Amino acid sequence: MANIRKRFYEFGSFRIDPEERLLWKEGQAVALPPKVFATLLVLVEKAPQVVEKDELLKTVWPDTFVEESNLSQNVFSLRKVLGAPECIENIPKRGYRFRSAVRSVEEGSRETALARRSLRRVRLAAGAAVLVALTGGALYLRFGHPRSQVPSSARPAAPVAVSAEAYDLYLRARYHLDRKNRKDNDEAIALLEKSTSIDPLFAPAQAQLALAYGVKSFFFNATEPQWEDKGFAAIQKAEALNIDLPEIHFGRSSLLWRHSHAFPHREALVEARKAYSIQPNFDEAWHLHAVILFHVGHIQEAWREIEKTLSINPANDQARYRFGPMLNYQRKWQEAIDALNHVPREVTPGLWSYQMAWALQSLNRLPEASRLLEAALAEDTSDPGGNLYGARAMVRAKSGDRHGAESDVARAIRVGKGFGHFHHTAYSLAAVYSVLGDLDKAQEWIENASNDGFPCYTLFEADPNLQRLRATPRFQAFVVKLRREYEHIPGETESGSNLPH
User: Fold this and answer.
1) Cis previous bond, 48, omega within 30
2) How large is the angle between the packed helices 53-60 and 68-82, nearest 10 degrees?
3) Do residues 189 and 212 lie in contact, with contact meaning Cβ atoms separated by under 8 Å?
4) 184-236, pLDDT tens digit by residue?
5) Which of 83, 114, 283, 363 is the most buried (most CB within 10 A)?
6) Structural contact between residues 289 and 280, judged by C-beta atoms closer than 8 angstroms
7) d(Cα 441, Cα 304) in Å, to the nearest integer?
8) Local structure of 232: helix, strand or coil
């Protein structure tokens, strides 16, 4: 066998393998995103010379124009992983210089073969963690995807050497986070807080923690603003570690799209689109984008995006649940019941029961709807968001029990206001008052639903539950205004915006 020589660079306790594009520290592989590694390699190869910023930009991003901030982010990341900020010197108005003493060494084929076997063992042990970083933490991706299919923009801009324990906690938390109930949400937060305390540099865990805090605020603890504050703080930590992580945009979209921010639909859609533009197989980003779309009346486009979500991740029960509401909004109530029966109720117990009861009462199966709601309220009398009391008010209104309906309306308002999904309760109250013939209150509540995140004009235009209200000029003008405002929202392309899609 020919004794092929291979070059390495060594400095301090580190060794660079240019051929394998790998950084080692004391015999352990340190995973670096490609552009961060490329920045390090240029600086080391040129050391101790000053490398001009233009040269770095052209070498690291040869065919792409990028802002200088990308280079600064790479240097920031390298200083952190090398543990010595002074090893990379910033030369004002010029560039950077690598200050550590660099040794160039060569090894023969036997040593190289041993190193490669060691590298394979490291990659088998740490491959999953590296893949998490390369795909922006999207664990649902098939592990067989070749690395070349991950766009360079999807690769993080910070080191991703992950503690095995932190990674395991992160995986366990994802399961709980996919279930929108109080117990699972608290468990997800506990696991992610432990993961990030063990490995504060694990950016995907920080981003998931932001999402978990946001879910707690949106669904369960709307009166406690500290959870939303914690969510935005975790997003900022993740962004400081890895500015290109798609979960940052996903988390920001989720944290923006809520009552406390007046549901800025367009801004939230932009952030969700950024997430799946960076990582096209990011199923939760497609899911969130679809949810916002059907809230603003674009049910068919949302349906296609939910189908795409499930083509990426068939196990996404949260996305599968969305077929139920979308079928309800299209007045396909029996199909909605069938769709909901294919989703475990515990995925989102309150909303599942609300949508099922709404389909049943729309079919005038009032006793069944009543029994379902009584059972759900017995399980959780707090009813965060007031959805169940709103649905029961509708059942009672259609049953001729005006006093019971108005009692439930008052309770729905008392327990639900401020929660993320109170806009569905507001829509229910509009339907209740339409049935009861109090059209001024019906109009007040349909406008409340719209202003609080549910301007679903395609539902409002044809909903038989709003039949009496639809005959009023005020309602008709209101729906015309909603259509004008939201008809062209998907991607903003029809309205001439340059926002990405």
Assistant:
1) yes
2) 90
3) yes
4) 999 999 999 999 999 988 888 999 999 899 888 888 887 788 888 888 888 88
5) 283
6) no
7) 35
8) helix
Q: What is the pTM of this model?
A: 0.66
Q: Provide CB contacts within 8 A for 230, sequence distance 6+.
A: 210, 213
Please list, in sequence order, all residues whose beta carbon lies within 8 angstroms of the beta carbon of residue 471, skipping any fewer than 6 positions away: none
Residue with tokens 């664990």: 139
Number of Cα atoms under 13 Å in the Cβ half of residue 399: 18
3-state secondary structure of 259: helix
The three-state secondary structure class of 261 is: helix
Q: Give the phi and the psi of residue 11 in degrees, each rounded to 5.
A: -155, 135
| Cβ atoms 434, 469 nearer than 8 A | yes
Maximum alpha-carbon separation in the chain = 93
Each residue's pLDDT tens digit, 114-161: 444 444 444 433 444 433 443 333 333 222 222 233 333 333 344 456
Cα angle 134, 137, 143 (rounded to 5 degrees) comes to 65
If you ran DSSP here, which 8-state letter would residue 21 be given? Answer: T
> Are the C-beta atoms of 328 and 354 separated by less than 8 Å?
no
3-class state of residue 76 by DSSP: helix
End-to-end CA distance of the chain: 54
SS (H, E, C) 120-174: HHHHHHHHHHHHHHHCCCCCCCCCCCCHHHCCHHHCCCCCCCCCHHHHHHHHHHH
Identify the bridge partners of residue 116 per DSSP, sorted by sequence position. Answer: none
Give the Cα separation of 81 and 12 in Å (integer). Answer: 13
Nearest to 189 by CA among 162, 163, 160, 169: 169
> Secondary structure of 406-422 in the HEC alphabet?
HHHHHHHHHHHCCCCCH
Q: Are 387 and 428 in contact (CB under 8 A)?
A: yes
Q: What are the phi and psi torsion angles at 242 (to 5°)?
A: -155, 95
| Separation CA 386–CA 374 (nearest Å) | 14
Containing H/E element for 25?
Answer: strand 22-25
Q: 312 and 283 in contact (C-beta within 8 Å)?
A: yes
Amino acid type, 431: A
Max mean pLDDT among 16-20, 142-146, 264-268, 406-410 falls in 406-410
Nearest to 265 by CA among 293, 303, 297, 231: 293
Rounded to 5 degrees, φ, ψ at 105 are -125, 155
How far apart are the C-alpha atoms of 164 and 125, rounded to whole Å?
A: 9
